[in-house]
Amino acid sequence: MKIGIEINGVLRDTIGKFKMCYEKFLMPNEYNLEEVSDFEYKIIEPITSLDLKSHFLFKDDEELIEFMYEDCPMEIFGHAMSSEMMTFNHLNDFYNQNKYDNKICIISYEVCKSNPSTLFFLSNFSCLI
Predict the structure, then answer these.
(1) Which of 20, 39, 74, 110 has its CA 20 to 30 A from that of 26?
(2) Closest CA relative to residue 52, chosen from 86, 7, 6, 21
(3) What is the pLDDT of residues 67-80, one digit of tens each?
(4) Which residues span the domain enclosing 49?
């Protein structure tokens, strides 16, 4: 049997880390005081879906893609927290108990620099898969 485990939202809190990076790098704060844009970045809460465009305002789709996959992929994908405290302990236990009877893989859609960032994330948590 093949078992696929999605990384975003299941193993990694990607949305939570995306929100932190959005607030830090795009919204006016102590890190970017010289905000000169006439565009207002803001977060529409509560965040109830995975559709980032409906919760985080960007000038256009290109800016969203550039922010995620070119400007901040290591911060968003590499340094995100696991979705639960013991996620990888349970995952590694599951893998060790089932690795001979099943093909277990991690599923994720990666673009540009998010691929090495995701591998960094998995190595930080000692993922055996």
Answers:
(1) 110
(2) 21
(3) 999 999 999 999 99
(4) 2-124
DSSP β-bridge partners for residue 107 = 6
Bridge pairing between strands 103-107 and 2-6: parallel
Residue 82 CA to residue 77 CA, distance in Å, equals 11
Q: What is the pLDDT of residues 47-63, one digit of tens each?
A: 988 889 999 999 999 99
In the chain, how many domains are there? 1
Inter-residue contact 51 to 117 (CB < 8 Å): no
d(CA 56, CA 34) in angstroms, rounded, equals: 21
pLDDT class of 35 with cuts at 50, 70, 90:
low
Residue 81 resides in a domain: yes
* Structural domain includes residue 93: yes
129 belongs to a structural domain: no
At residue 92, the 3 state secondary structure works out as helix
Q: Name the percent of the chain in helix, strand, coil, to the closest 5.
A: 45, 10, 45
